[in-house]
């Protein structure tokens, strides 16, 4: 049976455990938010990108967008990441393009490759990596990746991502009775809400957004993932979908929201994949995986996150679809997110 089905069946038994979990988190937060706590207080502005629930909400595309926004305005941004499943040879690790996914983690390495003018730091202790970066890199801006529950670093802007399910049956259901990491009261800390949904789905989702979030009086921005071009893994050659017209292709991915990847790729290519292979999130691709993909006898398409791991395996015909966050309709503000953020940054003296 699906684990989510078991979770629903056992919810009456799990709810007391959720309440205890919420109290433990609240006590921990109160300790670190005390003025005398040893939390890291950056000398420059710090953006946090996080979510209330576990699972794929689009954090990495939003961090990627923020790095592009920073570069376009001449700001030196430093990303503070814990480096999920990474095994850095040193701590903190300043990620360079020559690092492996095993050393840096797939998402930090992907961001470092896409944004060479930014710095990506990996360290489970983000106070340490932040201080290291302040001393050596003179950042204009920190971006705290997956930072909403990270109490040890102060931030100036808390961007909180939500899933459509968070506004429905999943609302307020805390681990282990649900997917939320904290209770609804935690959303009071947010400065901005974001939700990943297509422009077509926005109108049907809007009533739930208004019902659940109006009381927080924060702006809500929708965004979707806009595909760009296909980049050949290993060479960087770029092609559009027309180059694959009339040919079958395989889709392979190991991300938090594989259904979103399938939808994005199928829409970009104009047809469904002939083969669809789903691996766990942050999957470490093996030579056996590469042999299986090569044996399909067709072009393999994956995400940029998958590509940083597949590049070491030298597939002959593998392509990464580059996507970027594209912001759509909003609530409780007249401004589109890029303009809203520009205005916020100017008020804070960032530029």
From TrEMBL:
It catalyses: a lipid A disaccharide + ATP = a lipid IVA + ADP + H(+). Pathway: Glycolipid biosynthesis; lipid IV(A) biosynthesis; lipid IV(A) from (3R)-3-hydroxytetradecanoyl-[acyl-carrier-protein] and UDP-N-acetyl-alpha-D-glucosamine: step 6/6. GO terms for cellular component: plasma membrane. Pfam families: LpxK (PF02606). InterPro entries: LpxK, P-loop_NTPase. Transmembrane segments: none annotated. Its EC number is 2.7.1.130. ATP binds at residues 53-60. GO terms for molecular function: ATP binding; lipid-A 4'-kinase activity. Keywords: ATP-binding, Kinase, Lipid A biosynthesis, Lipid biosynthesis, Lipid metabolism, Nucleotide-binding, Transferase. It comes from the Bacteria. One of its GO terms (biological process) is lipopolysaccharide core region biosynthetic process. SUPFAM superfamilies: P-loop containing nucleoside triphosphate hydrolases. HAMAP family: LpxK. Belongs to the LpxK family. Transfers the gamma-phosphate of ATP to the 4'-position of a tetraacyldisaccharide 1-phosphate intermediate (termed DS-1-P) to form tetraacyldisaccharide 1,4'-bis-phosphate (lipid IVA). This is Tetraacyldisaccharide 4'-kinase. The lineage of its organism: Bacteria, Pseudomonadati, Thermodesulfobacteriota, Desulfovibrionia, Desulfovibrionales.
């Amino acid at each position: 049976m699906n684990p989510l089905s078991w979770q629903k069946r056992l919810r009456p038994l799990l709810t007391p455990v959720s309440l205890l979990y919420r109290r433990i988190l609240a006590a921990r937060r109160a300790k670190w938010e005390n003025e005398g706590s040893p939390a890291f207080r950056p000398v420059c502005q710090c953006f946090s990108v996080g979510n209330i629930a576990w699972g794929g909400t689009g954090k990495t595309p939003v961090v990627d967008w923020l790095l592009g926004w920073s570069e376009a305005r001449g700001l030196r941004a430093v990303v503070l990441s814990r480096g999920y499943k990474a095994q850095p040879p040193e701590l903190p690790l300043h990620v360079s393009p020559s690092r492996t996914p095993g050393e840096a983690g797939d998402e930090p390495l992907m961001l470092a490759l896409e944004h060479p003018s930014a710095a990506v730091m990996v360290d489970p202790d983000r106070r340490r990596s932040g201080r290291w970066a302040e001393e050596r890199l003179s950042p204009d801006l920190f971006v705290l990746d997956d930072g909403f529950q990270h109490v040890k670093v102060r931030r100036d802007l808390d961007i909180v991502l939500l899933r459509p399910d968070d506004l429905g049956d999943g609302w307020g259901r805390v681990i282990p009775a649900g997917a939320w990491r904290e209770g609804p009261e935690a959303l009071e800390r947010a400065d901005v809400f974001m939700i990943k949904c297509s422009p077509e789905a926005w109108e049907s989702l809007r009533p739930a957004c208004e019902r659940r979030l109006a009381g927080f009086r924060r702006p809500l921005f929708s965004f979707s993932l806009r595909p760009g071009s296909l980049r050949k893994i290993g060479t960087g050659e770029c092609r559009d979908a027309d180059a694959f017209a009339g040919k079958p292709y395989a889709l392979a991915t190991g991300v938090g929201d594989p259904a979103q990847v399938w939808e994005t790729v199928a829409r970009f290519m104009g047809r469904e994949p002939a083969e669809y292979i789903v691996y766990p999130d942050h999957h470490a691709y093996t030579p056996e995986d590469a042999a299986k993909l090569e044996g399909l006898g067709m072009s393999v398409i994956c995400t940029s996150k998958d590509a940083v791991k597949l590049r070491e395996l030298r597939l002959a015909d593998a392509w990464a679809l580059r996507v970027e966050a594209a912001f759509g309709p909003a609530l409780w503000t007249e401004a589109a997110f890029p303009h809203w953020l520009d205005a916020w940054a100017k008020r804070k003296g960032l530029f």
